Amino acid sequence: MGFPFQRDSFQRQREEMVRTQLAERGIDDLRVLDAMRKVPRHEFVPEPYRLDAYGDHPLPIGEGQTISQPYIVAAMLEHLALEATDRVLEVGTGSGYVTALLSLLCAEVYSVERHAALAVSAESTLHRLECRNVKIRIGDGTQGWAEYAPFDAILVSAATPAMPPALFDQLRDGGRMMVPVGPPFSQELQLIGKVSGEPEVKILEGCRFVPLVEGTVDSG
Q: Cα–chain-centroid distance for residue 19?
């Protein structure tokens, strides 16, 4: 498992991103900072946007989807407090960037993406970067991936009006889920713990994600 961590022409931009966008804004989880310093974000964006890959904003990745702002990604990962032994479900593979970060922070990553073109592209990039502890499937993310449940943590990279019940069911007791909850144009990050089978919700910060779509899968 892991990436070929040779230095590249974007190394300086990654260091600057970690310092100014993350550490100086309060992200202090050293494992998260180290992962974001290592993963080549530019490999996960379309060629026309690569020079802007480390900017403080989201970028389009096709199929009406985006790669999220680095700070929001780091905040979600930090609040999840992942352990190296964790089994994690990701809902919304997208470009595979967050999948790659998760692969450095935990033992197993199971990622569901409803857009076939994105899933295929992400899988190809992750394979090329020698990320070996990840499984990706094309499917309805609101239904999770019951075959590999229960999960220690679940990260949802799309907005939903309310916590999807199937995802909560697949969370182990004592586990935690990060999900953007709210209407299409303005959500709040919620950290949902599972305690004796019941949800304990902590409201974090405001955010804006593309919607989590339930039902028919785009097979490309």
A: 20
Cα–Cα distance for residue pair 205/184, rounded to 1 Å: 16
Question: Is residue 74 a part of any domain in this protein?
Answer: yes
For residue 181, being part of any structural domain is answered with yes
pLDDT value of residue 1:
45
Sign of CA dihedral 96, 102, 80, 177: positive
pLDDT, position 209: 79
Q: With respect to residue 219, please indicate whether it lies within any of the assigned structural domains.
A: no
Mean pLDDT of the residues in the chain = 92
Write out the residue range of the structural domain in which residue 128 sits.
11-207
pLDDT at residue 174, as a whole number: 97
Choose, from 9, 68, 121, 124, the residue flagged as catalytic.
68
**Amino acid code (one letter) for 125:** T
Residue 217 lies in a domain: no
The domain that holds 33 is classified in CATH as: 3.40.50.150
Among candidate residues 87, 129, 83, the one with its CA nearest the CA of residue 111: 87
pTM of the prediction?
0.93
| pLDDT, tens digit, 9 for 90 and up, residues 206-215 | 777 777 877 6
Q: State how many domains the chain has.
A: 1
CA distance 133 to 164: 26
68 is an active site residue: yes
